[in-house]
Amino acid sequence: MSPAGFDELEEAIDHLAVPAHGDAIVEGRALLDRLTSKLAEAEAAYAASGGWEVDGFGSMAAFLRHRTGMRGVQARQVAQRARRMADWPEVLAAWQAGRLRAAHVDATAAVVPERHVERFAATVAENIEILAPLGGDDARAALRSWVDHADALAEREAVEAGGEAQDPPVERDLHLSRTLDDVVAVDGQLDRDSGAIVLDAVRAALTKDPAGVRRTPAQRRADALVDICRFYLAHHEQPPGSRRPDRVSVVCDLVDLYRVALRGAGVRTAAQLDIFLRELPELGALERGLFVEAFDGAGSAARTLTGNPISDGLLACVSDGGVLERLLTADSQVIDMGRSVRTATDAQRRAAMVRDGGCRRPGCDCTDLGRLHVHHVRPWELGGHTDVDQMATVCDHDHLDGHRRGLTDRLEPDGTYTVVAADGTEHSTRPRGVDPPPRLALATTAEPAPPLPFDPVPVERGPDPDEDPAEIERQHAAVRERVAQLKRELGRAA
């Protein structure tokens, strides 16, 4: 027997015809989002009451897999969201009221770890207002930054309470199981650092399709994973006590490096920071300010060139004895090439990737380095320059599609990229790697950073003597006299 109202809903869906129109699709998606929020409320109550256990399942995710046909990853995500909605009823209410979308809720449930559920609840109302206007990528970036800051504050609170700083737990698992038809099912999840390594390795191992064979992207990734394992088995010797260094390209703010330096020096509390700064009197005002900013949570999560966030631990490992690539003259290669060359250099391509973070065409989220092209906003044959500030990264599909459809585009000095359709409609995007994510509210009992040992006061200056006509004439006269003296000395020498 269907629950009350479900018969009417089923009948309405059966008779619903969605026009093939953009506005209709957008409105239909909004209604679907509202329905999903209602279903999420029931899932939260079902998870909180342990209904899945009463129904004979070992977990909420197992119930969803067996009763609804969800895949393993999707079932775990929905189960996680159900638990979080029980913990954060304000988020569920904002979702049902239309202030948040499913993308916001799913990102919040996935990014905020169990150890910070209560801390997020303490400022949930304020964070809802900050997250509401953000897009999906921006919301995830803001939440990841919040988690990094929360971990740092948790360490500071533990040390101030007399305990020891504990590294955040590593959250990763991998399931390999052989099915009845002898197919091996692979399922699991990786933390940020291990995930970045695996993703970069799989991308590096991707190969082109053999002649006469067309594989799906999923098949190419599976073949790449097999090739990686085959290569490892063929070359693995496991010499005792040896470690093979790996090369990782990392993008980070300067403040991130200062944050890593503080963590490496064991600075966890405001008192320790004060001692740290006093023991380094040779530091200038800029460096002291950067240390205070880093301690207070400024900066963002470091990431690989492909956009995968990494932890401070991996950043410290990479930066120790590594090479910091400059963006203006990367590896001694000038990034701004003008019209001397048409094709972007490798250094320019990396710099554009750092700024754009993937394809810049509106609606495209491609970040696959192998598919990204560096596109001249003003065509090179029409006078365009091969300079980073005049090029944008677009994926191979959008690059070809833009030329085929005759789209025009422009790139503003602040990085805003605008595509203009044939009918004059404009769609703009901001570069993912330029705008820092907004700071979410974070409750803490940790002491704030101490004030800097200096208080800059604007200096009141009098009139500039170089602007006085009499002074200008005096300087000109001195120059004329010096020139005449030099001429006399040259004449005597001749």
What does this structure look like?
- Helices cover 49% and strands 9% of the residues.
- The chain is mostly helical.
- The chain has four domains: 23-160, no CATH class; 173-235, no CATH class; 250-319, no CATH class; 329-429, no CATH class.
- The strands form five sheets. Strands 9-10-11 form a three-stranded antiparallel sheet, with no helix packed on it. A two-stranded antiparallel ribbon has the order 1-2. A two-stranded antiparallel ribbon has the order 3-4.
- α5 (72-87) crosses α6 (89-96).
- The chain starts with 5 loop residues before the first helix and ends with a helix.
- The model is unreliable at 239-247 and 320-335 (pLDDT under 50).
